[in-house]
Amino acid sequence: MLVFLLYSNLEDIWTASECNRCVSLRHHSLTNDTLYFMETLNQSLSCFEKYQKQGNHSELCTECKATYRGLNELYSRMEKNHTLCIDIEDSMNMTRILWSKDFNCSFPRAETVPVIAVSSFMLFLPIIFYLSSFLHSEQKKRKLIHRE
């Protein structure tokens, strides 16, 4: 019974971790997607190591930006294609922590301009409303005064 329970728990961990997405059971090896991700991850980490030794994190951010962005895009594609397993997710989480927290690097967000435009419009909307309301009410008062 102990062996069955142990096997059952390991099978549950395997299933919950989506390991079948990264390991080809027929060939007893990693899938091509997983191998390509690991290669791209190693390129990014090598770049981090190279510039981390120099101690200049701003240079690291500029020089490693392309490899990190490529890794990030690959991860997003794999997420959409449902080819991620827990090992890839963990690797990407650790890489993102290195990039953002340890090296203090970031990407400018593309959504910034539309958010600022909509926010500005919403901010000025009450001002426009009250100004037009005031001007409209002044004209009605003038018309009422002139008629008498």
UniProtKB/TrEMBL annotation:
Its source organism is: Oncorhynchus mykiss (Rainbow trout)
Pfam family name, one: OSTMP1
Would the keyword Magnesium turn up in this protein's UniProt record?
Answer: no
Q: What PANTHER family does the entry give? A: OSTEOPETROSIS ASSOCIATED TRANSMEMBRANE PROTEIN 1, OSTEOPETROSIS-ASSOCIATED TRANSMEMBRANE PROTEIN 1
State the name under which the record lists this protein: Osteoclastosis associated transmembrane protein 1
UniProt keyword Transmembrane present: yes
Report keywords, A-Z: Membrane, Transmembrane, Transmembrane helix
This entry carries the following GO cellular component terms, namely: cytosol
Q: Which residues cross the membrane?
A: 113-135
| Superkingdom per UniProt | Eukaryota
